[in-house]
Amino acid sequence: MSTDPRELVKQQFGAHADNYVNSTDHSTGESLDRLLELVSPRPGWRALDVATGGGHTALALAPHVAEVVATDLTAEMLAAAERFIRARGAANVSFREADATALPFADAEFDLVTCRIAPHHFPDCAQFVRETARVLKLGGLAAVIDNVVPDDIAAARHINALEKLRDPSHNWAYTAADWLGFFAAAGLQVRHSEIFTKTRDFDIWNDRMEVDERRRAQMRVLLLQAPAAAREALAPQVVGGALKFRLTEVLIVATKTLSTLSDGVP
Fold it and tell me: Which parts of 50-195 fold into alpha helices (H)?
């Protein structure tokens, strides 16, 4: 297996693309509804959905804007998203392979840039946010959702190790404070940030990546014997014979303002 992070992402998600299209964990959720509420997409907008995955965010945006461009690094994932979106009658979504850290678009092309539950795979999240700022129009909105970890570094390392064992293409889940720092450094003015928790079924979570029993056994140990701060964040428990646990995510909505430009950020 390749050690290049982008190639790992392509291998993992190319092999499991349809699993993500069909995932109820990705197609619905409190944070997706909240994203739509906060950005209030408008009929004349051109939107960019970065790392679209199964295409659920792009599909949710499509009825409210003039155009959505859905991008993904993985060709198989993009094709699966296109089949899914076309089957639901959305004709104003186009699809393009793209690296989130080097977007193939001109400056100030989009009114809205979204990215949901993907940046923990990116090799450089700060660069992704800078690229987001670059392709946004003045006054445009960025809305990012991603998994986050506690400020406690031991807990952060433990949770990231769990994620990496499940999915070798996982890079790093940051803290909410880290994410606010990325936005500030890119010159984007944060309008709103919000934390959500989501309960996951351990086996369904692993089935999505077709994790073998050896790794599942290791992951059960990481969950059930987590150190205190990680255990508090993950909240593992057995419910009706099924192992459940919790992940945490942040939603950040920010604006590109004149100060973004005056600070020298494209």
Answer: 56-61, 75-87, 125-135, 153-166, 176-185
Kindly state whether residue 123 falls inside one of the protein's structural domains: yes
Q: Indicate whether 199 pLDDT > 70.
A: yes
Q: At what angle do helices 5-15 and 75-87 cross, to 10 degrees?
A: 40
Burial of 193 per CB tally in 10 Å (0-12, 13-18, 19+): middle
Residue type at 235? A
Domains in the chain: how many in total? 1
Contact 112, 85 (CB under 8 A): no
Classify 108 in phi/psi space as left (phi over 0), alpha (psi -120 to 50) or beta: left
Residue 264 pLDDT: 57
- Count of all residues that appear for the chain in the document: 266
Q: Give the per-residue pLDDT at 202.
A: 97
Q: Got the DSSP string for 43-92?
A: TT-EEEEET-TTSHHHHHHGGGSSEEEEEES-HHHHHHHHHHHHHTT--S
**211 domain-assigned:** no
In terms of pTM, does the model score above 0.70?
yes
Half-sphere exposure of 27 (CA within 13 A, CB side): 10
Q: Which domain holds residue 91?
A: 5-149+169-197+249-262
* Largest distance between two CA atoms of the chain: 57
pLDDT digits (tens, 9 = 90+) for 222-266: 999 999 999 999 999 999 999 999 999 999 999 999 865 555 565
